[in-house]
Structure formats: C-alpha cells, structure tokens
Amino acid sequence: HRTLRLWLSVCFTFTGGEFVTRNSRPNIVLLMADDLGVGDLGCYGNTSVSTPNIDRLASEGVMLTQHLAAASVCTPSRAAFLTGRYPVRSGMASPNNMYRDVTWLGGSGGLPSNETTFAKMLQHRGYRTGIIGKWHLGMSCASRGDHCAHPLNHGFNFFYGMPLGLLGDCGASSWPEVHRRLRIQLWVTSAVLATLPFLLLVPRLARWFSVPWTLVAASGFLAALFFLSWFSSYGFVRRWNCIIMRDHDIVQQPAEEARASGLMLREALAFIDRHKRGPFLLFLSFLHVHTPLPTRGNFVGRSKFGAYGDNVEELDWMVGKVLAALDRERLTNQTLVYFTSDNGGRLEAREGSAHAGGWNGVYRGGSGTGGLEGGVRVPGIFRWPTVLEAGRVIEEPTSLMDLLPTLSHVGGGILPQDRVIDGRNLMPLLEGRVQRSDHEFLFHYCGIFLHSVRWHQRDCNTVWKAHYITPHGSPEGVDACHGSGVCACSGDVTHHDPPLLFDISRDPAESRPLSSENEALFEAVLSKMAAAVREHRASITPVPLQLSAFNALWKPWLQPCCGAAFPFCGCSREDA
C-alpha cells in the first residue's frame, strides 16, 4: 500500500478537486482578437478601457511584452500563426498592394492543402478541434463547393463562423471598407461613360452633323457593360462576403452583424460543453474589434474611448465568459489558454468622423504598415495554472509562429520534417527553464517584400532592428495612410540605404535612428543582419502565389451561395 501511495503521488497531482496526470495532454483554448492594439489592454498599460478578464488572465499566467505577428495584416499573419511558417513560404503573401488579404469569398486563393496546421497535428493525436469566428484564409479553388481552403480541410473537426470576417461593408449602413478609393474611381468613371451616349446625341439634336445611331448605342452598351463588370462584385460586398457558416453549410447570408458575435460566443461555450471530457482544441477567433464595431446594448457608451472602447470591453466580457465556462466545468487547471491579436490596431479605421481603431502604445505604425513596430507587436498571454508560474513577464522576442511547435510539444504532436518551421517551442521559456528566446533573427515582411529585420543579440540583452523599406504615410509625417486606407508594401515606399537602424531594447518607439556617428557597432550590426537576410532568402522555396491578382479577383462560379440559385443568394437559418 505504501508503494501504491508513493506511485500515486508521483504520477498524479490533485488540483481543484480533480486528479490530473503530469503526462496528460491539456485542453487548449486559443483566443485571437482582430486588429486589437497592444496598448488597448489594461495589463499592457491602458487606463481608459476596462479589461478585467484579460488582465486576470495575465495576472494568473505569463505575459509576453515583445510578442510579434509575422505580418501586419490579417491573412498572412493568420497563415503564419496556423502553420508556424513565414507566409512567404506558403504563398500566403501578396505581390501587389491591392490584395494583401483574401478579399473575396469568391476568389480562388487560400491556404494550400499541403500546409500542416497545429489543428491538423493535434487532430492526429486525438484532439477534438474546432474554430469559431473569423477564418480569412480562403474558401474554394476551382468550383463553388470544393472548399479546398476551408477550415475542415486544415485539421478542424468543427467550424462555425464567418469565413472572411467582419468588414465595414458588413454593416447595413456602415461606410464601405473594401477598396474604398477604387470604388469611388469606378463610380466616377461609370458616371462619365454614362454621359457619353447623351453627348453623342447633342450634334444630332442640334443638327450640326449626324452621329450614327450604332455609335450611340455602342457607347451606351459599353457604359452599361463597364458598370455591370464591377458593380456585380463591389455593389454586393455585404451579400458576397459577410456570411456565417456551420461546417460546410451557410446559415446566414448576409450575416446579421449585430448578432454575429453573440452567436460565436454561444457556439464556443457549447463546444467546451460537448468536449469537456477532452482533450480538445478550441480556436476562438473573435470578430471583435474590427469595424463596423457591432456592440450590444449593455456595452454601448460604457467606455471612455467611444465605440471602439465599448467594443474592446465587450470583447473582454466574452473572454470572461469563456474563462467562467472553464471554471464551471473544473477544466481551468488542465487547460492551456492563450490570448493574442492577429496584428496591431488599425490607425485608419473610421466610423463617420470618429476614430474606430486601436491604440498601439508607444510603437510606430499599425495594421498594414509593414515592419513598423505598431503593426506587428501584439498582446501575448499564456495561462496554464498547474504548469506556468502566475504573474511572470517575459520581454524576450517571441512570435505567433511559435504556437505550432509549442502546441506540438504540449499536445504530443510531431513536427513536419519536410519543410522549414520558423516558430520555436516556447515552453522552456514560459516555464522559466531558459531565460533567452530561441529566436536570433526575425524577419518582417509586407506582402512578399522584406521590410525589416530584428536581431536578438545572444551575448547581451540588445535587440537591433533594421528597416530596409518603410511606407509613406499620408498625410506626410504620420505613420498611417489615411488617404488610401492602407499603406503600400511597394511603389509608394522609401528604400533605405544604409538601412534605418534602431536599438529596440532602448528605443521601442523607433524614434532615434542610429548611425556610424552615434553607434560604434553600426557597420558590424548591419553586416551581421545582411548575412542573416542572405541565409534566410536562400531558405525560401518558390511556391504558387495564393494572393496573386488573378486568384484575388471575384469569380461568380466560386461565390458561396444559399437559398435561391445564384445570384439570388440569401438565407437565415440560425436561431436567435
């Protein structure tokens, strides 16, 4: 009996009324906000918005202060998050400025089926896997129903959510977001072309000279054809892009944006209830805090930061509901919870005349600004009560790409050996067994263009950052692009030779560029980083570009559709 008791004490830990084996695999809950600024949370220094539940998560877990997205916009960042690889390796990086994200559900580009996601790895290890909320990694390739890039084709057993995500266009009365400037130009061009037939009639009616009726009719036909060619897509963005799916079936088209987030929370809580006997992986990809900022009654006007602050506080409340469900089911101690954002807050977001985007703290730039710190530095919080020490703060460089190898380690997965994995297992760092991050160099892309490089010098605490390319702000002198709505990756950019060099460890705001005159190591640091860039580029294998102009174009034959036959799509099959 004494031997048995000793064996039990070694093999089991009694926590919260439950026996949990030391070797048991945890449940995993991943919480990702959409366009949340690193400065929007109380635990990261915000005093104008109340986020008690996320702050509690940080106080009970480990908080990362130099946590980095692999891209400053949604699609490539999320591709890197799921695969542990720079998006340029999977083809999920754009060669042009217009299509930096998946723009249309009726497009043909998406996360390739040969990519290995952490969901696919854990699914093979017996996890029940679900994603609820935003996907934004494509849908179909060749036909409307092939769903080649659907979440269920990438390791998830269950999907409920918006396959693209919330857009400004999803609000019935909101200001358009998708290609706003282009749409204005198309309207103006259409108006000009529409006047052409009438102008051609003037000489005939004034009896100056006769204009052939065939020319008048042809000009009218061309004007109508031009209008229909673009209005068939841009005129129906809400109907084409704003839909809710359950697995492969559309349940709302267009989505009721005011109800969407509540439906996502309902499904997340139901998923936890269904699979509480575990192990399970839940990826709750919030629609918050992207425009049009649909916020329910109790939270409207609640914050000190307007509609955006209200939306952040509702997001925090939803996080609290998930944590409460884990507490209620007595799963807290055996569940690894992670919270982050896909990229920095969007500085150009507007709702009418009000700012509708996040705050990125002291960091320059935001969503869409290439390698500027405010676009890629995001919150990072891990909580696992029986494993991770509460209240720890880690200032080492870490990446969203680290989730794949980290989850592989804790869930018993096997990392693919036939490809480069850029992420690193964070568990030794999170547990305090090592003090330094495994990342020596991190590369910050804007589309397929390398904008900046970060070097974590191993023999000291210095983190250097070199910018080879920076975007042009508009108006001049700001680190955002209010004119175009999103900054360019190429073309309207500044190339720096020599590169702009900053010591991020002492100057996180990137406000004091270094030179050979004020930094003795200037040439040596740039030389070391140039060598790292050459080695990194040599490791990139050419792959098909999923966000090419052709793939990104709206294709009627790929457009998801419910209810009547295309193009008369529309349905609402979801209960309140």
Automatic annotation (TrEMBL):
Segments forming domain Sulfatase N-terminal: 26-411
GO cellular component, one term: endoplasmic reticulum
One Pfam family recorded for the sequence: Sulfatase
Location of the protein in the cell: Microsome membrane
A single GO molecular function term of this UniProt record: metal ion binding
Family (UniProt): Belongs to the sulfatase family.
Protein name: Steryl-sulfatase
Native organism: Peromyscus maniculatus bairdii (Prairie deer mouse)
Organism taxonomic ancestry: Eukaryota, Metazoa, Chordata, Craniata, Vertebrata
